Amino acid sequence: MIDPKKLSNEKVDILAFGAHPDDIEDGCGGLLVKAAKRGYSTGIIDMSLGELSTNGTVEERQKEAQAARKILGAKFRENLEVPNNFFFNSRELQDVLVKAIRAHKPEMVLVPYYFDRHPDHMATGNLVREALFTSGLIRYETGQEKHRPTRFLFYMMWNEFQPSFILDITDEFDTKMKALLAHTSQFGGGKGTRKTIDNDADTLKFFEARARNYGFPIAKRYGEPYLSINPIGLDDPMGFIPNFF
After folding, report:
1. How far apart are CA 222 and CA 3, in angstroms?
2. 3-state SS assignment for residue 71
């Protein structure tokens, strides 16, 4: 696990957590691209280096992750180096997460949905949610100011949920996919690459089909679904996409 002192102190509006390099691109890449275009600052934290992945070395994956970060427009991409497939809650891990949250002071945090085929995806959402609560406790001392984000959302990986809202990513979809495909070791399927679900040609078709599927209910070409554990309030009664066609 990384020494928290190696983490940056760069403040961002939105902080996205992923279990492995490339999860962010799949789950919430559209939101990050749209946010950057609208002037919000974004950052990415990957929990693990993905060292147990079937294809690609750690070094290759880190280069790909940084290339994808630039495409998404995020200010930074950090890795906590939690052992791949062994995400267990501990005081040490919670301390690292709290220090990261307090260092970056996001107002919105994005995590993978808490029910998923991959145990690391499920664990990430739960681990970060616990750390967000602790980060707001004044008596949990880390030498930093307490901080608890005001907005918290789950993004979709493999398993679906009934969305709290769907984000229109029609104008951002191509950039989202470009960032995803920057992870060539996982999605490229070149010579010497072992066959996986990620580099199957049908998987890329699935990504587009899902985005189209969630775009349809909001009368947009592409959509990206999000889940909130609390009701989402509005201060403008006309502040949402038309929903009666």
Report:
1. 39
2. helix
Q: Which amino acid is at 12?
A: V
CA distance 113 to 162: 11
Of the candidates 125, 112, 53, 48, the residue with the CA atom closest to the CA atom of residue 83 = 48
Rg (CA), the chain: 18
The residue written with tokens 């599927």 in the block is 213
Which residues have a Cβ under 8 Å from the Cβ of 201 and sit 6 or more positions away? 189
Architecture field, domain 9-227: 3-Layer(aba) Sandwich (3.40)
Q: What is the value of pTM for the model shown? A: 0.95
CA 180 – CA 23 distance, rounded (Å): 9
Q: What is the domain partition of the chain in residue ranges?
A: 9-227
pLDDT tens per residue across all 245 residues of the chain: 888 888 889 999 999 999 999 999 999 999 999 999 999 999 999 999 999 998 989 999 999 999 999 999 999 999 999 999 999 999 999 999 999 999 999 999 999 999 999 999 999 999 999 999 999 999 999 999 999 999 999 999 999 999 999 999 999 999 999 999 999 998 887 777 888 888 888 998 999 999 999 999 999 999 999 999 999 999 999 999 998 88
